[in-house]
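Bumping my old thread because nobody answered last time. Still need a sequence for this structure:
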């Protein structure tokens, strides 16, 4: 798997697939309260430290992205804002806000599913996670469960778009 910018990540096959499956479970949980289906899991070693899904609608909070919620929960669980030795698995490429939070949390590794050409900040529109001007950079692996992640998002947004009337015959 490679990043959208073309740099190889540190793929860890079966392990990454196992934790991306948990992130997909979290993404599905967002559907219960009509939030965009994005899920995130923070892992240290083989231990799940935190899991979260989007809660912007449920919490009426524009910052309640899955990544931020998972990072906050992981920091609380570990008793440190530095997420040394952790990997974040998320179903969608992080936005600028989330990518900045990952840099600030000193997260060493990010694995994400679908790219986000409209808001992605880890290769699509910018590459905050690997910007040499910043004080920390992440190892990034993209494409894990990309099809399943994209399918959840496509179904979610398709259900919300008004159906176009067929042209008269």
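Sorry it took so long. Here it is:
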């Amino acid at each position: 798997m490679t990043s959208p910018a073309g740099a190889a990540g540190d793929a860890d096959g079966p392990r990454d697939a196992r934790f991306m499956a948990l992130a997909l479970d979290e993404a599905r949980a967002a559907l219960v309260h009509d939030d965009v289906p994005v899920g995130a899991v923070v892992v240290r070693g083989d231990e799940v430290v935190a899991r979260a899904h989007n809660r912007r609608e449920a919490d009426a909070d524009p910052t309640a992205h899955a990544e931020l919620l998972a990072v906050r929960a992981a920091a609380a669980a570990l008793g440190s804002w530095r997420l040394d030795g952790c990997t974040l698995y998320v179903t969608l490429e992080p936005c600028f806000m989330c990518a900045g939070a990952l840099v600030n949390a000193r997260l060493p590794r990010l694995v994400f599913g679908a790219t986000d050409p409209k808001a992605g900040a880890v290769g699509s529109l910018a590459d905050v996670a690997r910007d040499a001007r910043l004080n920390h950079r992440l190892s990034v692996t993209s494409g894990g469960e990309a099809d399943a992640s994209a399918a959840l998002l496509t179904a979610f947004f398709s259900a919300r778009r008004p159906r176009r009337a067929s042209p008269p015959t």
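The radius of gyration is 16 Å. Let me know if any region looks off to you.
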